[in-house]
Amino acid sequence: MSSKTLSKSRTHTVVALSLLAFVLVAFGCEQKKQTKDRLYFDDLKLPIGAKAKIISDVNLNPAGTTSVQVVGVVPKKIDRDDLGRLMRSLWRQVKRRKGFRGKGTPDKIDIRLYTSEAQAKAGGTDWLGQVLRVGQTAKVTYTNRQKLPLLKYAKKAIGKLPQYSGTLKPQFLADADTMELEVKVPFVASDGTGQYLKKLSYTTLTTTFSSWTRTLFEKIPKLRKLTFEGKHDDEVVVRIWMTREQYEQLNLRQVEEGINAYRGKFVNRMLDGNPRTAKMVEKKAAKKRKKVYREVFARLPKEQVQLAKKYR
């Protein structure tokens, strides 16, 4: 091979290598740019026992608004509280992500949980739960569209009832759509037998009614309507229903405090140890209670209050 031919071959080789180097550098720069525009983090961890699946976890890091969008799927009948815990868990993990342009954290965080993969992939507004923050200093909002587990909340509010040790037990009927609740309460003895009281007094009837009503309305803020039904010897002796607005107007807590304050005026008399005095005080308090509750019940429409004849 002549020296001229060899020189020409070397020139072609140098040119080819230069072009290859240019292409590789350009490709590398493009890859680097793509990496900057989108970040990757460790997989999100689900709470123990959570029945959910993460469909996508996209972390965008453009020169403009940075963002994180997480899309997942949960069972259609997932408990509302469980959904809430899942939402909070995902939020805690996502908000700690660093490395975004600007302040290091994403400008927008959008976590959506759907009830089917089809819905999740479509990315519509028919999600069941969403955690959203738009802006670095904006307040995060949690939107939980799952129905309130009203029955669960009611039983939790009332708590354990050791006096109902037999077959007679309270019944709960809940409508989560309308947030209405009905409770059927048998008046039983507190001696552990679980049987009906031998004698049901007006005091026991009204204190039980007041206690259940106040507890349920106060511990379930979204409860709209409550029906209380009391039974004695297998007969309905009281059935009263009211809306939250009516409950707030009646102010049963203040009613009970007033009755207790009246009874408290006679405490010193009871300290003499005379059983007749104690009996007299209880009689006065019972009389006062009956007068007060007759006025309370009269403030409700007649059709909302049903009392057995002996308790009217």
Q: How many separate domains make up the residues?
A: 2
Low-confidence stretches: 23-35
> Beta-sheet strand percentage?
15-25%
Chain-averaged pLDDT: 88
> Largest sheet at a glance?
6 strands, mixed
Number of helices: 9
Order of helices and strands: HEEEHEHEEHEEHEEHHHHE
Distance between the termini: 125 Å
Helix/strand-derived class? alpha+beta
Strand ordering within the main sheet: 1-2-3-4-5-6
- How much helical structure, as a percent, in the residues? 40-55%
Number of strands: 11
Coarse shape: elongated
Radius of gyration: 35 Å
Task: Walk me through this protein's architecture.
With 312 residues, this protein is α+β, with helices and mostly antiparallel strands. The chain has two domains: 39-144, no CATH class; 150-311, no CATH class. It is 42% helix and 21% strand. The chain has nine helices and eleven strands. The chain has helices spanning 3-37, 80-94, 117-122, 150-158, 202-219, 244-250, 252-264, 267-270, 275-298, and strands at 38-39, 53-60, 67-73, 108-114, 129-134, 141-144, 171-175, 180-186, 225-232, 235-243, 305-307. The strands form two sheets. Strands 1-2-3-4-5-6 form a six-stranded mixed sheet. Strand 2 (53-60) and strand 3 (67-73) form a beta hairpin. Helix 7 packs antiparallel against helix 9 (275-298). The longest helix is centred in the N-terminal third of the chain and has 35 residues, at 3-37. The chain is elongated and about 85 Å long.
